[in-house]
Amino acid sequence: MGRPEQSHLFFQELLGRYWERGRPRPQTLASALGLALALVSLAYSQGATDASLNAVRISDRADRSANGKFAPTITAAEHMRRAGIYLTNRAFVPAREHWQAVLDNYPNDPNVPAALYGMARSYYVERRYEDARQTYERLAQTYPQTKEGREASNFAASSLLRMGRGAEAAARYAEYLEKYPNGERIDTAHLNIIDGYRESGHPQDAIIWINRTRERFAGNVVETNAIFARLRLDIALADYPHAIQTADELLQKPLPKDSNTNIDEVLYLKAHSLDRAGRTQEAVRTYLMIPDNVSSYYGGLATSRLAAINDSLARQKAADRSQTVQVALNNAAADYPAPYRFQIVSEAKKRGLDPRLVLAIMKQESAFKPNAKSPSAARGLLQLTIDAAQKYAKRAGINQVTDDSLYQPATNIAVGSEYLSELSRMFAGLPEAIAASYNGGEDNVARWLGRSNQNDEGVFAAEVGFTESKNYVFKVMAYYRAYRQLYDSNLKRR
Fold first, then answer.
1. Reported confidence tier of residue 51, pLDDT bands at 50, 70, 90
2. Phi and psi angles of residue 445, each rounded to the nearest 5 degrees, phi first
3. Long-range contacts for 334-338 (Cβ within 8 Å, ≥24 apart)?
4. How far apart are CA 203 and CA 230, in angstroms?
5. Please, which pLDDT band fits residue 369 given cuts at 50, 70 and 90?
6. Looking at the DSSP assignment, which residues form a beta bridge with residue 70?
7. Which fold is adopted by the domain 8-181?
8. What is the pLDDT of residues 86-110, one digit of tens each?
9. Number of other CB atoms surrounding residue 250 within 10 Å
């Protein structure tokens, strides 16, 4: 359940701030070294070892006075170090306690902007978006010339977007662009303004910003992403003639590797638009241009669409494609094991889940390694974070869950299945949405579903806004297809 925008990257950004300023003053150097120590601690064993977490907990207990306050001898840099370890392990409350200690005890220390940023970031990761917005705004107003201040201005807008306040978010991003015309995030700010207007029901304003973005970033990946935004908007508006035209524009130029789309996706969206426009034979030819194989998400969808078209040739092509993939999967069956079969089937079926989807997510999350731990402190087979596990443990019949117990397969599968069942209820059982929300957050998936405005899983997948989450969906769905073909619903080999 690892998330994009992982918290350890924030500390890398903070340390870079000091080096950008040239040779630092002595106290700034000390602060930078404190952050460097935090980075070393975070980097060790994927940035978040259980040993480091336990160590700071022990230190905190030793450094508290009778009234529960921290000893005044703890330096600002040490507070920052401990807060960093807590944040990386998603222990938000003690992290904020250390940042607050910096604000209270060292109001003139160079770490103050970083402490405020850390507090805001912790609220943001915890999805307390209004608290995050308020803290980001405070930072942006108080320290506007620092990198943290610039970042805070951007993330104040992002917090509004996450709360479903798209028009307000767009206006706040525009303020960021006006204040920092050469800021670090001007590219994503332009694209997020487009999303904000789309999500608030202002498509014409979105088109204006698509055109501005194309002009501002002509010839690079941001322009490509803006054109792709127009394609998705055309489809949401059911403007299929313009969608076909936009898809053709994308297909006439090489797609940069770091764009938020690929050729198969664009071809699928074009074929979908042709089909909806009643141009069936052109749709068939376009679907056939998407190769199908064991790892191809859009190839599999194209095969399914061909099989559903009332055309004998299209159906025969679909049957041929399906047979080829089936043979390849049979030959690669060893790559799709079904460990922990009893626990997965038991926990999934009592919640109305397909055990094969649970297995597909588990394969992607941990490769079936019960002791796996991610840099963002997700643990165990289904890579649960402690905050999510504590939310769902009692519903799963587990009275208490700890960091260590998440490495136990039975606990992890039970809690993870409970979480997946809630996502399934939330998104009407749509596997793509379940997978996307498991990686990118259910609040984001609700936004992406809302703006897709189509009853088509491939159109929804194209709306997934994080490249990491989109690739996650592609992999999980490819695994799910394989498991459905290789195993029955009791995870017995066909």
1. confident
2. -65, -35
3. 336/363, 336/479, 336/482, 336/483, 336/486, 337/368, 338/483, 338/487, 338/491, 338/493
4. 10
5. very high
6. 64
7. 1.25.40
8. 999 999 999 999 999 999 999 999 9
9. 21
Query: Is the sign of the CA dihedral 158, 159, 163, 165 positive or negative?
Result: negative
Assigned token pair, 311 = 């055309």
Whether residue 89 contacts residue 350, with contact meaning beta carbons closer than 8 Å, is answered with: no
CA 40, 45, 46: angle at the middle one, nearest 5?
Answer: 85
Give SS3 for 384. strand
In this structure, which amino acid lies at residue 244? I
Backbone angles phi, psi at 50, to 5 degrees: -65, -30
Task: Give the closest residue to 14 by CA, choosing from 132, 152, 141.
Answer: 152
Of residues 153 and 2, more confidence is placed in: 153
Q: Which residues have a Cβ under 8 Å from the Cβ of 34 and sit 6 or more positions away?
A: 75, 76, 77, 78, 80, 81, 111
CATH code for the domain defined by 341-486: 1.10.530.10
Q: d(Cα 216, Cα 190) in Å, to the nearest integer? A: 9
Domain ranges of the chain: 8-181, 244-331, 341-486
- Please report which confidence band the pLDDT of residue 8 belongs to, taking 50, 70 and 90 as the band edges: very low
Amino acid at 195: D
CA angle 102–108–112, rounded 5-degree value: 45
